[in-house]
Design a protein that fits this description.
Layout (H helix, E strand, L loop, with lengths): L3 H4 L2 H24 L4 H5 L10 H20 L13 H16 L14 E3 L7 E3 L2 H26 L6 H5 L2
């Protein structure tokens, strides 16, 4: 019998991160073909008070990593935010995918009933009475927001991507 918390988390994060790799590859090709400084895309924003595209990818990978690690009840591996290029972002996604691949499905068995605490000991602390609520009302919505925003920034800046790119092949 499959574990619903595992099957609604790890495979979904993997699919979207793999699709995001494809979107970033198209963005890099777009910049090269049009002789655009890649930083114009990496630092682009939809609005001045929003994160730039590069940070959207960083936050998306942080959510994939932290949400799945908490659900699997393992220590969250820190990813540094020293990314400066499309290649760095691709490597960051690869590192995140490798972390997800190493999480055993068996670790997710009691996640639905396990209490999870996000940002413990800080003013932003939030307690979830179960992993299902954590995943469905917090983890996935935040992850999808940042993936979608990165996609929209690139699309807004002329990168020829569409729904198939967003969903992955």
């Amino acid at each position: 019998m499959s574990n619903p918390i595992y099957t609604t988390s790890v495979p979904v994060f993997r699919q979207m991160l793999t699709a995001l790799k494809g979107v970033l590859a198209k963005a890099q090709s777009h910049a090269e073909a049009r002789k655009i400084d890649p930083n114009a895309l990496l630092h682009a924003r939809l609005f001045p008070d929003m994160f730039m595209m590069m940070k959207q990818v960083q936050v998306a990978t942080d959510f994939a990593n932290s949400v799945c690690s908490r659900l699997a009840n393992v220590e969250i591996q820190k990813l540094d935010d020293a990314d400066q290029s499309f290649a760095d972002l691709q490597l960051r996604i690869d590192r995140t995918l490798a972390i997800l691949e190493k999480l055993p499905a068996a670790n997710f068995v009691d996640a639905a009933s396990r209490k999870l605490v996000n940002n413990p000991g800080t003013p932003r602390e939030r307690v979830f009475e179960g992993g299902e609520a954590y995943l469905l009302t917090y983890g996935l919505p935040h992850f999808f927001f940042h993936v979608t925003t990165a996609f929209n920034i690139l699309r807004h800046n002329g990168v020829e991507i569409g729904k198939r790119d967003y969903l992955g092949g």
